[in-house]
Amino acid sequence: NSSDFWPPVPVPEPYRVILSNVRDRLYVTRQVLHQCLIHSASSVRGALEEAGAYLDDDEIAAPLKLMYTSLLKTGDESVANSRLLDVIRQIRTFGLALMRLDIRQESTRHTEVLDAITQYLGLGSYASWSEEERVQFLLRELQGKRPLLPPGMPLASDPREVIATMKMLRELPRQSLGTYVISMAKTASDVLAVVLLQREAGIKEPLRVAPLFETLEDLHNAPATIRQLFSSPWYLNHIGGVQECMIGYSDSGKDAGRMAAAWALFETQENIVEVANEFNVKMVLFHGRGGTVGRGGGPTHMAIRSQPAGTINGCLRVTVQGETIERQFGEKDACFRTLDLYSSAVLEAGLDPPTAPKAEWRKLMDVVSRASCAHYREVVYKDPDFYSYFASATPASELGRLNIGSRPSSRKTGGIETLRAIPWIFAWTQQRLNLPVWLGIGEGLQAAIQWDGDEKDGEERKEKEKEKEKEEERGKRGKEEKETETETESKGAISKSHVQAFNILATANSSSSALLSSLGIGSVCTPNTRDPAYLSTFLTTSGSSIGMSGWGGGNSGGCGGGRLTGWYRGGSGPLNNPPRGERDETEGG
User: Which residues, in sequence order, are bridge partners of residue 311?
Assistant: First the structure.
């Protein structure tokens, strides 16, 4: 007992009397928690209540606030606003638990639990019900008073683990817990299912439930899901005017590519906040970002300031992943700098919100997003050889065996679809290719260049345009070949095969020139194919290799299937045509 070695405080010293009581209860709280760590099966909440220890922040803050008010009334402002005020602020910031623990579980695991319960009770198969039937069932149970989970009900290992987790949450102090995050959330029933399971587990103060929308389809459907939840009077009353919603940067990028995911995340934030405002609900957005670009990483201040207007209302939640914790918070100076960046960005977002994108910008981003996503998925999910290439070219399988992650590398057995986003990005990073960062972006930008402003920019019109371009290119190539053959026959300077080789180079250069010019970078210079003397000089200088020009500051570059050569001219500068010995002729991979 603390009174055995701490002498009692005299009654005429009221502040010391109050503080001695706080000291004794803190000592008891620490001792009880140490015993709970030794005896893991014991109930933490029950042990704290039985010993008269502190359970929540208000209990320890109340006597300190009483002292603070008393000191101000008696004219001791210097004492009140010194160390006592610091302690009160620390309690308000960190509480008794230092940091709250979020719980995260996949939506399908909750479906398995409810399916087992309904089948056991003879109500049918919950998993086979439609979304409307699920929502009606869950709301009926939530508004009813009878228990749903039978005691002693036999369960398989996965459903039993979910129920055991819920019961463990019941035994912990509420203020040591944060949010229950539902990964791969898709529908309103996914949220209601967790609310019901918490009640069935006997959690008196249920955790707030945050759906995590991760795939491109789920992000697009998120506003409708939130609207369906808020349309229920029971649920609207249950949340008390605050809803937390998590958006996933990693899995959305893996699903659709970085460009399409970024635009979908932007629009989703706007739309769900708009729905929340309709129902007078404060929407707290939880950004599930990683440290690398492929997982939504980037400069902290810039990333926050680039969020849509009205989505950060003085409140922001963001994940700081393992690979960035040390860099951002590892040292005192770095920690304060990081906190400064977060604080200033959140304040600026409220005081100086960004301008909403114009309608024509949105249409253009839709075009870029669709083209980017289509090409990304064509390569990653539709190419039958891609998974075998990924498995052999990256250390993905070895990463799954390392004891450095909190979760398995894959959700279940399968291909790219089942792989989690973290090993997906980590594997490409180890190979130094960083494919998830750039794949599809070039096609998206090319689509933006060719876009004519028509909203009916469907796939059918695109295919027709492609076919038309191919037809025109074939006709143009044939015409140039005939003209060149005629000139060649008259002057006898070069062979027909050389002309065909050069025409391929000219075609590639023409496409590259349009892209470079549109981006304001420069242009690729194609020599005059109708001058046999010039062509002869060119082919003599650069050999008979076929290829296209590379990106360079004046010298030729190359990549692709052969020895690639050509010229690059920056802006309106003179043609750069160095001798053969100075050229950069690269053997393609």
Answer: none
E strands of 144-196, at which residues? 177-183
Considering Cα of 179, then 180, then 183, then 185, what sign does the dihedral take? negative
Contact 226, 191 (CB under 8 A): no
- pLDDT, tens digit, 9 for 90 and up, residues 198-246: 999 999 899 999 999 988 899 999 999 999 999 999 999 999 999 999 9
Cα-based distances in Å from 160 to 39, 109, 149, 166, 183: 22, 10, 12, 10, 19
What is the amino acid identity at position 447? A
Quickly state the pLDDT bin for 484 (edges 50, 70, 90).
low
**Quick one: CA torsion of 270, 271, 272, 275, rounded to 10 degrees?**
120
Burial bucket for residue 468 (CB in 10 Å: 0-12, 13-18, 19+): exposed
In 3D space, the residue among 380, 351, 372, 355 whose CA is nearest the CA of residue 448 turns out to be 372
User: Tokens for 315?
Assistant: 């409140």
Task: For residue 200, give every residue at least 6 positions away whose Cβ sits within 8 Å of its Cβ, in sequence order, or none.
Answer: 147, 148, 149, 166
Instruction: Dump pLDDT digits (tens) for 234-261.
Output: 999 999 999 999 998 888 888 888 899 8
Quote the tokens at residue 103.
């719980």
pLDDT number for residue 304: 87
Cβ neighbors of 262 (< 8 A, separation 6 or more) are 253, 296
Asked whether 211 and 225 are in contact (CB, 8 A), the reply is yes
Spatial separation of the C-alpha atoms in residues 306 and 68, rounded to whole Å: 41
The pTM score is: 0.71
Contacts of 537 (CB under 8 A, 6+ apart): none
The rounded distance, in Å, linking the Cα atoms of 500 and 484 is 9
pLDDT above 90: percentage of residues in the chain: 39
Tokens coding 582: 């100075």
Cα torsion angle, 270, 272, 274, 280, sign: negative
Beta bridge partners of 283: 243
Do residues 234 and 142 touch, judged by C-beta distance below 8 A? yes
Q: Quick check: 419 and 396 in contact, CB under 8 A? A: yes
The answer to whether residue 539 scores a pLDDT higher than 70 is no
